C-alpha cells in the first residue's frame, strides 16, 4: 500500500535517477603525439629520467626511490596538481628528493605537459 511518504520516496528516487542519466562527464582525449613525446622524455635517461626513480609500464631497469607511476588519473584527478609536482615538488614537499624539473629548467614546459599527458595513460 502506498502512503504519501512512500510516494514521495519513489518520486525522489526517480528524480535522482533521471538527473544522474543526464550528468555527463567531459571526455578529455589525449593527444597521441603529446603522449608519445611525454613517454620519450620520461624514459630518456638524459632528460626527464623518471625511470631512474619510478616503476613505469614498459620501463626497463626502473628505480624504486619514488612510488610506482600507476593509476595516475585516479591518483591525480586534478592534472594541475600532477603538473605542479613535476614542475617543483619542493613547494608542497620540501623534503622530496625529486628534482624541481621546471624551476631548474631541466626540461621544458612542453616536456612537462607531455609527461603529464603520458602519465595520464598509466
Walk me through this protein's architecture.
The chain is mostly helical and 122 residues long. It has one domain (28-119): Cytochrome c-like domain (Cytochrome Bc1 Complex, Chain D, domain 2, Orthogonal Bundle), CATH 1.10.760.10. The protein is 46% helix and 0% strand. The chain is built from five helices and no strands. The chain has helices at residues 4-22, 32-43, 72-75, 79-88, 109-119. α2 (32-43) crosses α5. It is globular.
Distance between the termini: 52 Å
The description of the largest β-sheet is: none
Q: Which stretches are low in confidence, meaning pLDDT under 50 for 5 or more residues running? A: 21-27
Helix proportion: 40-55%
Q: Please, how many domains? A: 1
User: What shape does the CA trace take?
Assistant: globular
- What Rg do the Cα atoms give? 21 Å
Average pLDDT taken over every residue: 85
CATH top-level class? Mainly Alpha
Order of helices and strands: HHHHH
What is the CATH architecture descriptor?
Orthogonal Bundle
Fourth-tier CATH superfamily name: Cytochrome c-like domain
> How many E-type strands?
0
Tally the helices: what do you get? 5
CATH topology: Cytochrome Bc1 Complex, Chain D, domain 2
Structural class: mainly alpha
Report the sheet-strand fraction: under 5%
Amino acid at each position: 500500500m502506498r502512503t504519501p511518504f512512500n510516494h514521495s520516496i519513489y518520486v525522489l528516487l526517480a528524480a535522482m535517477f533521471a538527473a544522474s542519466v543526464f550528468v555527463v562527464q567531459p571526455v578529455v582525449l589525449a593527444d597521441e603525439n603529446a603522449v608519445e613525446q611525454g613517454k620519450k622524455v620520461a624514459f630518456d635517461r638524459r632528460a626527464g629520467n623518471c625511470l631512474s626513480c619510478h616503476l613505469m609500464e614498459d620501463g626497463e631497469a626502473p628505480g624504486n626511490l619514488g612510488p610506482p607511476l600507476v593509476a595516475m588519473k585516479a591518483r591525480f584527478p586534478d592534472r594541475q596538481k600532477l603538473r605542479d609536482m613535476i614542475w617543483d615538488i619542493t613547494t608542497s614537499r620540501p623534503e622530496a628528493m625529486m628534482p624541481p624539473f621546471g624551476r631548474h629548467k631541466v626540461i621544458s614546459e612542453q616536456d612537462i605537459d607531455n609527461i603529464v599527458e603520458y602519465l595520464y595513460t598509466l
